[in-house]
Amino acid sequence: MKLAKLAKAGAVVALSAVFLAACGKSSDDGASGKQVLNWSETAELPSMDLSKSTDAVSFAQINNSMEGLLRIGKNSKTEPGIAKKTEVSDDGLTYTFTLRDNAKWSNGDKVTAKDFVYSWQRTIDPKTGSQYAYLFDGITNANDIIDGKKQPSELGIKADGDYKLVVTLEKQVPYFKLLMGFPIFFPQNQKAVEEFGDKYGTASKYAVYNGPFVLEGWTGSNLSWKLKKNDNYWDKSKVKLDEINYKVNKSTTTAYNLYQSGKVDATVLSSEQARQLKGQTGYLERKEATTAYLQLNQTKEEFKNLKIRQAISKAIDRDQFVKQVLAGSSTPAKGFVSSGLAERDGKDFVDAAYVKSAVDYDEKDAKKLFEEGLKELGKDKIEFSVLSDDTDGAKKSTEFLQSALTDAFGSDKVKVNVSNVPFKTRLARATSGDFDVVISLWNADFADPISFLDLMTSDNSLNAGKWKNEEYDRLIEASKTTDASDPAKRWDDLVQAEKILMNDEGVVPLYQRTQAWMLKPSVKNVIYNSSGVNYNFKEAYISGN
How far is it, in rounded angstroms, from Cα 325 to Cα 392? Predict the structure, then answer.
């Protein structure tokens, strides 16, 4: 799904009696009998416009305040959402969704098939500028619309009355049902979008909601907001929480202090905190289908050079990075696609596509390649900056890379600067190409390698480094067209594509993220999935009320 945040690192606060007491305490408001969950977030909320969102924080809020045809439940399994019935034609090219007639928007309007038609057409319209429009590939006329050859109204989605929706495909899409549970395919209320105009999705009051909760208190730039139970939600009887209060804490020290004092129920931990708290009540580790990687801006001369890209990758000791910066909770990346996402004949995709030389640490070889690259460029020295977020962990990450690259190549050959900026600023700069090297994270939108590999096609707007390879593009296209219905051929296409990406260092993988958290034992029934939108709070509750 999506762009995610770096694992956090910061100073640890010693265990104390306050912490031990807080573990058994809930954020349940005993006086009012309200169910209230207090959640520590690590980055600001960029947008609530689902057509334009690209990041994990935005999608988390959208996923819990809005709902699509299907909902992603436990273990990434699809379950009914706005659609109470789904029928698929024998050739797999026509999906007919029967919508429930009691679904409403928070403004009281009925949710109808026309809301889905409007939303999909708005998202795929080139005028909207959605970076996720590529996910519509396979739906009739989608690519021609993206390319400006056809109108959005020609997309293969039609409303048959208010409560029947028919979607036609040009080719089979093996993961189509999973897509229906991803926010980019959710409905939008046309009346609200047109009423709010340019302000739509820029603050909580400039949006309407059809999911378990409604967003309140977000101004577009503040660092706190809340999700409140949506009384208009069709399945509100299953929603137990009255409120979820979000507070952005970029310092893990601050966040952990709030957890100790009982003011938040869940917080991500720094590497030092994770070392000390592992095994304590409430400690847990979330393995994510998330890869952290470097994008090198290949519109710049130095990063067009393969040897420079290879040298940078070989200069990074990923084992040391994980141990020093991430406290060993994450794992060194073996490629761009995360492990545990897909397998065939008992073999993980990552192992099938593994290119050891692309992620091996070899300082001697790194220096040799770097000097050869400089010679090819006709330069004695290069200077560049590594861009990342302004959190504790992101700062540690850029410092590690700055030190590693300088030590490997020598300060007489390279000058590495660091730039740590707010999350929204980093996203904007990456999108506009305003960077030399940027630390990016990608969490799979659904459990299939294509969710990663699609990003690196030549025309994908999320390919911020502008890496291009014709054979790679051909293989990705074959996996979605001629080989889409042949699992073995499709698998081979994707494996070969990953190998091309890695051999050419189109991106430089760093690690697969596992985040350490403290979660109060009183918080129950939170659904967590490693791919797609991670958190589903629909049926969560606080015990002991």
Answer: 10
State the Cα angle at 496 between 491 and 497, rounded to 5°: 100
Query: What CA–CA distance (Å, rounded) separates 58 from 64?
Result: 10
For 246-269, the DSSP string reads EEE-S-HHHHHHHHHTTS-SEEE-
Q: Give the Cα separation of 437 and 418 in Å (integer).
A: 9
Helix (H, G, I), strand (E, B) or coil at 10: coil
The crossing angle, in degrees rounded to 10, of helices 487-503 and 470-480 is 160
Per-residue pLDDT of 168-200, as tens digits, reads: 999 999 889 999 999 999 999 999 999 999 999
Pair of tokens at residue 280: 């304590």
Torsion angle, alpha carbons of 98, 102, 105, 110, to 10: 70
Query: At residue 287, what are phi and psi to the nearest 5 degrees?
Result: -80, 130
Instruction: Go through 194-206 and write b for each residue having 16 or more CB atoms within 10 A of its CB, e for each that does not.
Output: eebeeebbbbbeb
Contact of 69 with 120, CB cutoff 8 Å:
no
- 3-class state of residue 224 by DSSP: strand
Q: Are strands 243-248 and 36-41 parallel, antiparallel or unpaired?
A: parallel
Q: How many other CB atoms are there within 10 angstroms of residue 305's CB atom?
A: 22
Alpha carbon distance 424, 74 (integer Å) = 30
CA distance readout (Å), 92 to 88, 138, 166, 170, 464? 6, 12, 13, 10, 34
Rounded distance between C-alpha atoms, residue 249 and residue 505, angstroms: 34
> Residue 330: which of 355, 361, 293, 279 has the closest Cα?
293
CA Rg, the chain, in Å? 23
DSSP result, 138-194:
TBTTHHHHHTTSS-GGGSSEEESSSSEEEEEBSS--TTHHHHTTSGGGS---HHHHH
Question: Mean pLDDT over residues 243-260, rounded?
Answer: 94
Do 229 and 206 form a contact (C-beta atoms < 8 A)? no
Do 226 and 216 touch, CB atoms closer than 8 A?
Answer: yes
Which single residue is written with the structure tokens 């020598």? 410
Give 123-154 pLDDT, tens digit per residue.
999 999 999 999 999 999 999 999 999 999 99
What's the pTM?
A: 0.77
